[in-house]
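Chain A, query sequence.
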Amino acid sequence: MKEFDFESHKLKAIENYRRVRPLYEEYAAVIRKVLLEAFNSLSIKIHSIETRAKAIDSFGDKAATPAPNDPNKPYYPNPLSDITDLTGIRVIVFLPRTLNVVDGIIKTQFEVLERSDKTQSLIREDKFGYGSIHYLVRLDDNRTRLLEYARFRSLVAEIQLRTILQHGWAEIEHDIQYKAVETIPNTIRRRFMALAGLLEIADREFQAIQDEDERLTTQARQAVQEGKLEQVEITPDALKAYLDKKLGADGRMKEFSYQWTAKLLHNLGFSDFKDIEECISGYDDDQLSRVLWGTRQGQLSRFEYLLFAGMAENFIKFHLWKDQDWFIKNITRDLEKLREAGISTGAYLPTNRKLAEQAGAANAQAPG
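Chain A, predicted structure.
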């Protein structure tokens, strides 16, 4: 029997692919655009989207792959149509639950020709590993009827969907370059299996942490609305909920600003919002703002003025910037302004600071 000329088959395939590869690069960009628009419209947070058109050398090697049941025949007789990953997209998400959300988006936005869950196939085949979900997709008819997408009508793309831990596993596993399970030394195989289990547990734990965080956030917001302030731990989100209710919402405030102010509150010694409420009770945020600045300032600035009025020297003593000369100069000037305006400042000491001072006094009195 005449032997099949794999080299000639490979060179012809490369020549044909080289001419159309730019189209597959464009196609990858289109798939990415469709996915990003869908993610943004639904406020889905992902780690990244990677795209590529298959490298020419890689395509040539794949085109020259022999058929498993007949090594004298090519596995891909018509490489351009038989090889389905000429356009490749990899979507990497942070947490396992997002996989289900993205799965739904892919099914909605594209015509899905094939879907395979590599994790489930590994379990069925009793192999170790840490898989991902693979799709073969096409643009649906609604898009390819549009002139801008018509040239992609017959093209197929491969989408891989995985968590960031699955991605890390795949990259390291690929770098070690054991292509067949049977060729892996037993000591390394056992370590791979143990690591796969640990990563699966880590993925689940990250998801459980996010779920718990969302539960606590919802619970804190509800407690703020119900006035159960002693039950609310000071976090940036809880602080925003508290201030929106007490001082009115202010869309100019950034998440970073709430994070910084929550850190300041902890440093000042506040343990919950009941403490804060006691400290600022009886002061008018608008009045304080106009005394200090002549105008009504933003939500967080007015809140700091309330704390300052309620604590006065204690605010300065435990502030994050207490060692900065410029801060001491400015805050001392502001304290004089308040007193000159007839505003009686307090000396509130938050619970944690009281406890710390009491403990310090007790230690000082204890026999040496």
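The longest helix spans residues 186-225. The CA atoms of residues 50 and 364 lie 62 Å apart.
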